[in-house]
Amino acid sequence: MNRVLIVEDEEHLAEGLRFNLKAEGYSVDVAGDGEAALEQLIEKNKHFDAVVLDVMLPGKDGFEVASTLRRAKNFVPVLMLTARGRPEDVLQGFAAGADDYLPKPFELPIFLARLQGLLRRREWLRASDHVNGKTKPASAKTGSNAAGQDTDVFSFSGKTIDFGNLQLRANGGTIQLTLMEAKLLRHLVRNQNRTVSRKSILEDVWGLREETDTRAIDNFVVRLRRYIEKNPAKPKHLLTVRGVGYRFVG
Length: 250
What we know:
- This protein is of the alpha/beta class.
- The chain has eight helices and twelve strands.
- The chain is 40% helix and 20% strand.
- The chain has a five-stranded parallel sheet with strand order 2-1-3-4-5, sandwiched between helices. A four-stranded antiparallel sheet has the order 6-7-8-9, with no helix packed on it.
């Protein structure tokens, strides 16, 4: 039975979600604010298979809760609920470490489908680990092979991105990527040596088709450069194409 933590200060919404999730066979806990959620997830180290996290919370908001979780190396899947579906808010949620988002108000079947999608991804990763028995070797071929087909592991310049396990291995260490960081890297690798526009990233990676300030993407790129570049101020792999977007050079 999957265990879900609902972090929501609107009691009627929290109880409605709890009721419907229990009817679907989930085990459900509820936290009324960010501090209570972090106490369960970090201080008490309780296990949950997913977190449903509202943005507008008293005290620590959802963005801060997600950021704190990721800094604490807790990578439980997070479905973020936003009062507004503005692209800027969505991108801020992804930057904080959310795995998916859902604007309020939402239809219950859509909510259940998004949550089940996150849980399926976690099960796929577990199944992959079980079948393989160990992490795939760094010599495995790249994220997009000569036939244009995606593969799980991409190696370049002494670094390895394991897209299946959301990990970047470099300099003898491992960085755990968020789902959105991995999706952005995969999109850039898939288009290796080609310029990728910010608009393409918004549409193809985040599924946002509204007009927005695409410079919000730059924050993701800055973080990825810290991961993969020897000198992030003078990148050799993740290049800026002024006025257009970015180009990945392996």
